[in-house]
Amino acid sequence: MPVFSYKALSSSGGVQTGEVDAADRPEALRVLDRRGLQPVSLKESAASSAGPAKKKAKSDGAAAPAKPSSKAAAKDKLKEGDDKTPDGPLKLKRAEVIMFTEELSDMLGAGLQLEPALQSMEGRQELGGLKAVASGIRQLVRDGMNFSTALKRVSPSFGPLYCSLAAAGEASGALDTILKRQAHYLKTLAELQGRLILALIYPAFLVLAGIGVAVVFVTILIPQLTTLIESTPGGKLPLPIQLMMKATELIKAYWYVIAILLIAAGLFFKAWKDNPDNRMTWDRFKLNAPMIGPVVASRFYVQFLETMANLAGNGLPLLRALELSRDATQNLALRANLNTVIDQVGDGRAFSKALIRTGAFPPLLIDMVSVGEQTGKLDLSLRRAAERYDKELDKSLSRIMALIMPTILIIMASLIGTMAYLMITAIFQTIKNLQH
């Protein structure tokens, strides 16, 4: 029987190491759970795997080396090849990605294995172009490739976050749950974008109307008023109108230079942002930016807590669950915090203590993790914390959307009001000069 070496956290927070006899890895995890231990790492002992291998090698010593199987050969060929399927990568719309994720998660949740589920999707007429995606993924999976790697090969529409979460689902045996969560996340994101577009329609009309009024003021009304004031004896333009007229003349004379400078600034910023050396700075800025920062942080907490809850709930060791959650995190600043947590948990420190040491996680999250460690129900505590941060994320987004309309109204009212005030002031000054 195989022997597994483990490092685990006891209910008192101490670190225990040792070996356990089990038929396979899931059985070893169940044994540790019955002992009240939270595994940090679990590896099969080298001695237990070397014995049978040596025995088999000895008995087959005179035999000729076997040829690799067609499945292994196909797998090696895929690894050596490029990152494309024979038909090339297939691009999908977000709605198609959501449909694919929902269909696959439903079939996996109903008890189908991955390859039969993909084969069933190939025969569904209502899925349209998704049948080609399902066919390409099924061929790669059948040839021995991991599902998450097959997703990357078949379509770039499955982004790094999606593929990392799929890898976490494969490792934990909870692929259907992970995909269901991902479908919910994608639908929430699509719904948010739809609400944002609807909320911006009216402000967009206001902005266009304000720009139109400003153009009329600057190009027609103010020049006519300027001509009237200059033809009046003793007439003098107010200083703000003089500055506005000079700015207008400058824009008319060098508009193409200004346009080139704006485009160059945009391209420079994009190149700077996409530079790997500057990604950490940009990701930190997003976390600290007003209004945007809380949204980015809350979104990370929801994703991190849900992923950890699914992985821990399916018996994955804590250290491996943290590594997979880190791989599913795109923000480099947050990844650095998770790297610190992983290092400290690997050294035997409790999960909650490691979170405290980083100084980057909120007290509520740490308290929920601590409760889960004390009760032995870490996955349930993480899931409750994820639900709370999901509500906080919804509140933050609603707050931002509620502030868009008044902000635009104030800006446009200030712009139009300032121009109207300047014109009225100039008219009154002209009338005053005529009376004298």
Automatic annotation (TrEMBL):
Q: Which residues form the Type II secretion system protein GspF domain?
A: 100-223, 304-425
Q: Where are the transmembrane segments?
A: 196-222, 253-272, 400-428
Q: Which InterPro entries match?
A: GspF/PilC, T2SS_GspF_dom, T2SS_GspF_sf
User: Compositionally biased, Basic and acidic residues: which spans?
Assistant: 22-36, 73-86
Task: Provide this UniProt record's keywords sorted from A to Z.
Answer: Cell membrane, Membrane, Transmembrane, Transmembrane helix
Give the signal peptide range.
none
Q: Provide ranges: composition bias, Low complexity.
A: 60-72
Topology with regard to the membrane? Multi-pass membrane protein
Q: Where is this region: Disordered?
A: 1-90
Q: Which domain of life is it from?
A: Bacteria
**What name has this protein been given in UniProt?**
Type II secretion system F family protein
Q: Give the species this sequence originates from.
A: Luteolibacter rhizosphaerae
